[in-house]
Amino acid sequence: MSGYDDRDGQIWLDGKLIDWRDANIHILTHAMHYASSVFEGERAYNGKIFKSRQHSERLHRSANMVDFQIPFTVDEIEAAKVETLAASGLTDAYVRAIAWRGAGEDMGVASARNPVRLAIAVWEWGAYYGDAKYKGAKLDISKWKRPSPETIPSHAKAAGLYMICTMSKHAAEAKGCSDAMMFDYRGYVAEATGANIFFVKDGEVHTPDPDCFLNGITRQTVIGMLKDRQINVIERHIMPDELESFEQCWLTGTAAEVTPVGQIGEYNFEVGALTRDIAEGYEKIVRL
After folding, report:
1. Which of 15, 200, 222, 228 has a 20 to 30 Å separation from 27 between CA atoms?
2. One domain for residues 83 and 209
3. What is the 3-state secondary structure (H, E, C) of the chain?
4. What's the pLDDT tens digit per position in 225-242?
5. Which of 89, 123, 157 is the last residue of a domain?
6. Are residues 208 and 104 in the same domain?
């Protein structure tokens, strides 16, 4: 497969569709130097983007958290995504919307005079974790921790917050793992590098309180599914030494969807009935 910069197709950029290979930015784009960028990862199923508007609304909120305004309304972003998906010819696809401070009069930490730009790209993307989606992913435990909300806008889906996620995932892959689980700045279980995490014990589901990391849209969807099934969901701080007491584990995210976890570090988990039920149920919901 060719690289993501060398493909046929079109990308929506600043109000119009252009050839995929022409969707370029200047080397002095502010976001490239100072991470002034926010984005969304979305999936389309049967030609419809799941919870599309929630993603567009969150894109606006993220931009506000990192101190810029997107020059397109939520309705305009929604229309652009529909246009881009149609132009791709795909019905099941990944959708990436990204907004950033571009090149302009400023080239330093401050960039208030630079234009804010928006792009939307669509491509075909299968299971994020490959066959781990069915067999259970193997996770490393990252040496990096999710930072305190006093140090970053932790509830923004902002590019800069993923730097330690990239390093953590690279280290995990070097050990033969699919991903890494991260603790937060206090030492509590937080999330994987790009997905939220759930555990099962004695028929109840435990998941970290997202007080210093992104409360994912898929996470919220799955909590709703569990409550519809009359399963008690406990959102709380989870200590590392509790991992050995949990029976099942799964990850949630737009890319990950619902992926079972078979191992985190030295701890093993069953790919059990509840995990499979939620994974299968999610597959149905997104195609309604």
Report:
1. 15
2. no
3. CCCCCCCCCEEEECCEEEEHHHCCCCCCCHHHHHCCEEEEEEEEECCEECCHHHHHHHHHHHHHHCCCCCCCCHHHHHHHHHHHHHHHCCCCEEEEEEEEECCCCCCCCCCCCCCEEEEEEEECCCCCCCCHHHHCEEEEEEEEEECCCCCCCCCCCEHHHHHHHHHHHHHHHHCCCCEEEEEECCCCEEEECCCEEEEEECCEEEEECCCCCCCCHHHHHHHHHHHHCCCCEEEECCCHHHHHHCCEEEEEECCCEEEEEEEECCEECCCCHHHHHHHHHHHHHCCC
4. 999 999 999 999 999 999
5. 123
6. no
